[in-house]
Write a structure and sequence with these properties.
The chain is α/β, with parallel strands linked by helices and about 280 residues long. About 40% of the residues lie in helices and about 20% in strands.
Length: about 280
């Protein structure tokens, strides 16, 4: 069986399991984090959906922890779906795994072959192409956080090079059909504005996040273009917005926004990090 080896262990997050677990816990308790460890006090059922950043844990881990604390209210998911951008443009434009295992320092995560086949069938857009995932960090960095709260789970990885609105709507529609009535985690992996002054990044990102909270995909793409927001996983966010809307969710909630300058002290050229959940 194909094993997808970690591409960024030792750089984006520690390769040592003990160090990795400690850094994850520290992310929750960091001044920028939610201030408490999982599980969440409120238990949830059904689909739980969020937007989560994907930078190195030292930079975006505390913001990601807000999303993961909320997700931990779903104690035993049947499936975890992560929709993430393909930064390298390698492989198919929209891809998943037919079967296999994703490895991290915390163990191996099995791909849900049935779910992969179903999203391919429902959309007609998704290909089986593990090569598109081989070097990509945006999906990989979510897995240790997920392993720390759920232990073992089944994964549906979706990588997007094509991030246009039509693609997002079609993949979102397919996911909504597939996930309805199930206990599932659905994650959009994205950072926001890249390498602009902190004040400029915040202004742009808050304008974009307002459309995310409103679940307004059309306006989301308008703001992206009008404000020139350099969100790397915008198609992933739009896909999860569409799926959430079609599943009957009414709003998004911004739990935390920060940027790399909040941890490095360099506010001249920052990257924005969002934590948003849908309900």
């Amino acid at each position: 069986m194909f094993v997808r080896k970690p591409a960024v262990a030792g750089s984006f997050y520690p390769a040592d399991p003990a160090e990795l677990k400690k850094l994850i816990d520290d992310s929750y308790l960091h001044p920028l984090g939610p201030g408490s460890l999982p599980p969440a006090k409120e238990e949830r059922r059904g689909v739980v959906a969020c937007v989560c950043p994907h930078a190195g844990y030292a930079y975006s881990g505390p913001v990601a922890a807000h999303s993961y604390l909320w997700l931990s209210g779903l104690r035993s998911p049947e499936l975890v779906v992560v929709v993430a951008p393909n930064h390298y443009g390698v492989g198919s434009g929209i891809s998943t795994f037919r079967e296999g295992l994703w490895e991290t320092p915390l163990g191996r995560v099995p791909v849900d072959s049935d779910a992969a086949a179903e999203i391919v069938r429902l959309t007609g857009l998704v290909d089986f192409d593990p090569e598109a995932h081989r070097r990509e960090h945006s999906l990989e960095v979510q897995l240790p956080f997920l392993q720390s709260i759920y232990g073992t789970f089944k994964l549906l990885p979706i990588s997007l090079s094509f991030q246009d609105m039509e693609t997002a709507r079609e993949i979102g529609a397919g996911l909504s059909k597939m996930l309805a009535g199930r206990d599932v985690v659905l994650i959009a992996s994205s950072d926001l504005t890249h390498y602009e002054p902190a004040a400029v990044a915040r202004e742009k990102d808050m304008a974009l996040l307002k459309t995310v909270e409103d679940l307004d995909t059309g306006r989301f793409y308008q703001v992206l273009e009008e404000r020139q927001v350099t969100a790397c996983g915008f198609g992933a966010v739009a896909t999860v917005m569409e799926a959430s809307r079609l599943l009957g969710f009414r709003r998004g909630e911004l739990h935390k926004y920060a940027n790399s300058g909040d941890t490095t002290g360099d506010n001249d050229a920052v990257v924005g990090y969002p934590s948003v959940t849908f309900g």
